[in-house]
Amino acid sequence: MDDDGLSTRIVARRTLSSSAFQIGAQAITVVTGLTRSVILARLLMPQDFGLVALAIIFSNLVWNTTTLGIDSRLLQRRGMDQLGLSTHLTLRIALSLLAFLILLAITPLLRLAYPDQTDLPSVVMAYAALNVLRGFNLTPFVLLKRRLAFRRVALIGVVSSLAMLVVAPLLARAGWGFWSLVVGESVTGTLVSTVGLWLFRRPMRFSLKLDRAMARDLIGFGKFVMVTHQLRFALDRFDDFWAGTALGQVSLGYYSKAYEFATYPRRIISRPLQEVFFTAYSRLQDDRLHLSKIFFRTNSYVVRLGFLLSPVLVLVAPEFVLYLLGEKWLPMVFTFQLMIVYSLFDPLLVTAGNLLTACGAPQKMTRVRVAQLVFFVPAVVVGAALWQINGIALAADGMLLVGLLGVFRMTGAFVDISLRKLFVAPTLGLAAGGSAFLLISYFFQAQGSLLWAVVKGLAYAIPYLVVLLLLEWRDYQAMLQSADNLFGLSRFVRRSAS
Known about the structure:
2 domains; mainly alpha
């Protein structure tokens, strides 16, 4: 039984139930987000996306530096009363105002560094103002995650995505250009979140009391998390920064959109689970057996679904770009395919990092991020010089491999996991699907058409699924039975509580 009155079994049940709900909600947001991205890609130019991507880099760099990692402590810490929540909220608001002032101070430097991008300082300050509002929202948002109330979190995400689907394309069609991305997406999403968190069944009282001991505790734990997050941010954004600075706004537009579309499989596969399972890891950190089971099942799901969706997207990438986005985006096709490889394996690194942080060892992940950064920065510079944005994408794939090799050695201190059982079946399925695709492509004569895209996808997916079912059918039966039992008991517990 943990400090919130939840036993290990109830945590496991709520985790499974929340995961299922999150996956369903994420499917809706992915469909609406993809639809919005396709429409905006047709209405706007690559340089519009490049400008906004560069502004987000500078805005988030300062924001991440000033957060001090205190959100992770709120999730991880045992016991959190109203004074602790008020302390977190007060720190959050103060730190967001500090980030705003820092960005305001550096805008003259941005004008000097990017004289040909005159709108960059204005867009940066727009995101800085939004971050202040985010500072008010994050405490109740993290509190909902702590309570495993992911249904409400998912509902806010769905409503935000639907609102952005309407507003952003309308503004783009009205001629707002890059401002349609800022206002239609970021402003709209933040306002919906504010309403959902504070004006409708608020999860906490609004209070700005500050307990110094609690503040020291939040910051003391969070400093390692903050360093890790900043390293991850550098790894996620240095490639964007270098593409925009060394290669130009148009190249950054191609690169950022290639990365965005490449991450859609990851959004379906892992994003719904990352937030849910971080909370579960925190609750089960002293129960190695159950922690190992949940950690393996999380990564097993990520690997198997990733090995299905990502190769299909690689195969249909040329037709996807040509028919959905238009000819002006064709220069990003190969970059898009390279980034899909990155998005396939990155969720494994994220889940392992969440495990280390949830078990109170964020410094281990910090060491992994340092090793990645040492490899990544020179690789990006050299790759951009040799092969433009394709070289940057290759550097990102190599950096991810460095991280995976390091982090899975460290997880052994907290969980027991068989890499052979994790990877053998999906790898054999990958080989079967790839062989079937090569065989069919030798005979099929409709290359470049939409029909060819469908044939390619099915030629890979069907053999892949057949191999998985042949090798792991009993495992899937057991998982389905377990899920049915857990959901049934979870509903019984809720009815009894009411």
